[in-house]
């Protein structure tokens, strides 16, 4: 494996671990997780808690998917999956902005995540 691919794998692993952590946080501390996402939620409402739980489960599954592809050792497939998944933080940024959330979170958290994912994609696809 090239140095470029190794760096890409490390970044992909960090992305996977981070999204699994974020997903778990939506399950165990939904109020904190929603605030960190950038949109405050009334977690005292059962329906809202359900949606936050759905987000948590899907985040965990997304992280696990990246780990499975990493284990398979298919560098280019991993790059394409990371590229496709970049739509998630981009969409999150738009949701935060359209919901009146903090621009600092939209750009600083979700935008930065998308940027790291694009760098990771480049490292994996160009290796």
UniProtKB/TrEMBL annotation:
Keyword annotations from UniProtKB, A to Z: Membrane, Transmembrane, Transmembrane helix
Keyword Membrane in annotation: yes
One Pfam family of this chain: DUF4267
Source organism superkingdom: Bacteria
Transmembrane spans: 6-28, 64-85, 105-126
Protein name (Swiss-Prot/TrEMBL): DUF4267 domain-containing protein
InterPro entries associated with the record: DUF4267
